[in-house]
Amino acid sequence: MSSIELSDAPAKAYKDKGEHSHLVPKSVKVSWGAGALGVALLMNAIGSLALFYMVGVLKIDPVLAGSLIFVTKLFDVATDPIVGSWSDRVKSETSRRRPFLFAGAIVSALSFAMIFTTPVFGNQLFTAAYVLVAMMIYAFGYTLFNVPYMSMPSEMTPDYHERSSIHSYRMVFVSLGGLLAGAVAPFMLEKMGRTEWSSYATIGVLGGGTILLFMMIAWAGTAKARFTVAQKETPKVLAEVGHVFTNRHFIRLICVKLTQLLGVASSQAAMIFFILNALQRDLTVMTYYGITLSLTAIIASPICVRISRKIGKKFAYTIGSSFFILTCLSWMLAGPGEPTWAIMLRAAGTAIAMSFNVIMAMSMLTDIINYDAEKNGIRREGVFTSFYSFAEKFTYAFGPLIVGVALSIAGFDKDLPAEAMQSPAIRHAVLLGVSYLPGFMGLVSLIILLGYKLDKEVQAEAPKS
């Protein structure tokens, strides 16, 4: 009946541990988590820098720039489920996922360098065409690595809380990747020239090398991790995709992430404009913001796991969502010359929200995958993860588009220095991105989250196929 079965064949590190055999070795957790630094740098740098880079350096109209990002994400409508199903169906005596990690690392690194070394043509449409191609390669590389990568924790252990522990290691590397994208990169831009093409080219080359290194660590270091193997019976792709949308727990979790991440994406896209235009600060303040964010997230990650063991994953997630809403709304109180300590305090609130939200959401996703497998006898890690990944990228398409349209309506002039555009209309346009929309969507996501029912007790009662 089952099309996919579990295998412990390569997992020598787990043998002879008795009741602790479900625990994943720290070396595997660290190696797997390291890949998240590459993913975080890739996603956060594109999310926070791409729109400003296109508008301020490449001189592409804000609406066109936002549309380019949006269109490339539509490409993932096809690639995410295809890669997810493909990684489920691969016949191999070793991990089905790791070959995708290897290929995805190379494509992701190259695409990152391509984007930030875009040639500036005399016609903005030619420049936009190059960006479109580079962004599509980026979207495919991200999918090729991230969908199989995020499928792996549900295979590594059957333990309900151990899955949260795995993702807490990932959160540390997510924080470090965010530090590079959110603090180091803006600092470099401020020192080298935030509107200089060569500054972004330097970031593109250095960032691409870093992405390749850490993604390859994940590929090499998970060779002994537990995995699942495909049997001779090949599941039909459309049937597998259709099955995903009959899972009410998954649908609710996806709705939570869609609403919440739309606010996160718009906030990232608008933050540089907000710093320069509304707060009238230079980008060095983002160094303080990024360092505070990363250090707080690293500290908060193990605390999040402990709290979830005490009160449950849903309520731990609720804590993170509440911090997110309050922090976003607090930006409405910020004004020109905002003190650095106030910006750092908001960074700490954002970090707590990020740690709780990311760890709990991903742990809940692996719970859903294992619950579904126990009920139906078929493991669909890749398909479930592909739609989760698509939700993430779809929101990151809408965020820059919304900010780009808002800036255009407010009268943003791409030919003027960013700090010269400080009108009330521009302030409200960037506040829409960093405060109004994230706060509202965060509240909606919190309401949806309250109806989530798959806790440890429900999973333990799942009928075995």
Automatic annotation (TrEMBL):
TM segment ranges: 32-55, 100-121, 127-147, 168-188, 200-222, 258-279, 285-303, 315-334, 340-366, 387-410, 430-452
Record carries keyword Membrane: yes
Name of a matching Pfam family: MFS_2
Entry keywords, A to Z: Membrane, Transmembrane, Transmembrane helix
Superkingdom classification of source: Bacteria
Keyword Transmembrane tagged: yes
InterPro entries reported for this sequence: MFS_2, MFS_trans_sf
Family membership: Belongs to the sodium:galactoside symporter (TC 2.A.2) family.
Protein's name according to its UniProt entry: MFS transporter
Organism: Ponticaulis profundi
